[in-house]
């Protein structure tokens, strides 16, 4: 079997931490920001961890087993 390639779209959206967790950016922070509160926009700018339900799929896309 050949090596599994990294999904390049996923590689640009997710990254692994030193402890093996997967980090993602939050959605809804690119446009139509006028109606969103400052608190909401501030929180959308921060990154968060990928949920347990999606971790297996994302890990495979990033080239993990």
Walk me through the structure:
- This protein is of the alpha+beta class.
- It has a single domain, classed as Irregular (Factor Xa Inhibitor), CATH 4.10.410.
- The protein has helices spanning 8-13, 38-44, 52-61, and strands spanning 14-16, 22-25, 47-49.
- The chain has a 3-stranded antiparallel sheet with strand order 1-2-3.
- A hairpin with a 5-residue loop joins strand 1 and strand 2 (22-25).
- The chain is elongated.
- The two termini are 14 Å apart.
- The relative contact order is 0.25.
- The mean pLDDT is 96.
Which key features would you list for this structure?
elongated, 3 helices, 65 residues, Factor Xa Inhibitor, alpha+beta
Give a quick precis of the structure.
This protein is 35% helix and 15% strand. It has 65 residues and is α+β, with helices and mostly antiparallel strands.
What is this structure's SSE topology?
Blueprint (H helix, E strand, L loop, with lengths): L7 H6 E3 L5 E4 L12 H7 L2 E3 L2 H10 L4
Strand order of the largest sheet: 1-2-3
The CATH topology: Factor Xa Inhibitor
Summing up helix and strand content along with how strands pair, one would put the structural category as: alpha+beta
Return the domain count.
1
Gyration radius over CA? 15 Å
Mean pLDDT: 96
Q: Quickly give the CATH architecture.
A: Irregular
Highest-level CATH class: Few Secondary Structures
Helicity, as a percent range? 25-40%
């Amino acid at each position: 079997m050949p090596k599994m390639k990294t999904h390049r779209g996923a590689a640009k959206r997710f990254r692994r931490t030193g402890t093996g967790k997967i980090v993602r950016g939050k959605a809804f922070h690119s446009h139509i920001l006028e109606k969103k509160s400052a608190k909401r926009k501030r929180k959308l700018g921060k990154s968060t961890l990928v949920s347990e339900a999606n971790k297996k799929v994302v890990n495979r896309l990033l080239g993990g087993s």
